Amino acid sequence: MSSTLKLAVFGDPVEHSLSPVIHNLFADQLGLSVDYSRIRCSIDQLPDRIAQFAAVGGIGANLTLPLKHAGLRLCRSLDRAARQARAVNTLKLEDGGWHGFNTDGAGLLLDLGRIGVNTRGARILIVGAGGVASGILGPLLGAQPALVTLLNRTFERGVELAERFEHLGPIDAGSLDQGPPREDYTLLVQATSLGHSGQSPNIDPAWLAPDAIACDLNYGEAHQPFKSWCDQHTIPCHDGLGMLVGQAALAFEIWTGQRPDMAPVVDEVKAIGFRGQGSGVRGR
Question: What is the pLDDT of residues 51-100, one digit of tens each?
Fold first, then answer.
């Protein structure tokens, strides 16, 4: 049996993925050998492609857009985060079947810890109520914030998502046009895809506490519009690269039983540089 772990990321598109770089850095750090590939795959192709991957020795996979929901149907079991998010981003082959996990929200918490942001007692404003937000809400609410507010262009969608998670902790919703129910949020999370079209959501800085910190779930070019807004209003801002590395570190631990140190890998990926647009949740 080969001592090299055969891993892959499945998505469409997938050519931009940083996952091979990140997981090879993890492997080097821990003295392990991995063969991590990119596999372009549509939703309809996923069952066959994942079976082919297992047949040639694949034991672990990441799923990115548009496959996270489709991946649920492949799984013999799901962890709590995947059930909450109704999406999987990590698969592990064990006992002849695939087991699904979602490490996105926990990866965000790891990165917030890395940059010194304490979520316990925080008042968190999340802009966006799509799949990105649903992937992080369970772990965020589990971190005992004082309040999480979802702000979305479509108010009803935000309310629907808040009601889905209200059993986990204090959460409400507001309209992006009218603003949130209060104006003293200590952490702003940008969870829309507007950066991919060169835009930033219409946020009023008056909604935030004077010492607020912002976190964008996008990185690379897609982060620049929101970064410019934060710079304009002198709000400390962090991009989504750390979350990307954080969720990958948790996936690597699922596959190997060893959790790598994410901080030096964030620095190494930044030093290597990366091209194109991406998001810590939408694109691995």
Answer: 999 999 999 999 998 999 999 999 999 999 999 999 999 999 999 999 99
Question: Whole-angstrom Cα distance, residue 85 to residue 98?
Answer: 18
State the catalytic residue, choosing from 6, 68, 92, 270: 68
Consecutive H or E run containing 173: strand 171-175
Encode pLDDT of 12-61 as tens digits: 999 989 999 999 999 999 999 999 999 999 999 999 999 999 999 999 99
| Structural domain boundaries enclosing 166 | 106-241
Q: pTM score > 0.90 for this model?
A: yes
SS3 49: helix
Identity of residue 128: G
92 is catalytic: no
Report d(CA 164, CA 177) in Å as an integer.
22
Question: Is residue 196 located within the same domain as residue 214?
Answer: yes
Burial 37-70 (b: 16+ CB within 10 A, else e): bbbebeeebbeebbeebbeeebbbbbbbbbbbeb
Find out whether the peptide bond into 139 is cis, omega within 30 degrees of 0: no
In a domain, 76, yes or no: yes
Report the CATH number at residue 190.
Answer: 3.40.50.720
The H or E element spanning position 224 is: helix 224-232
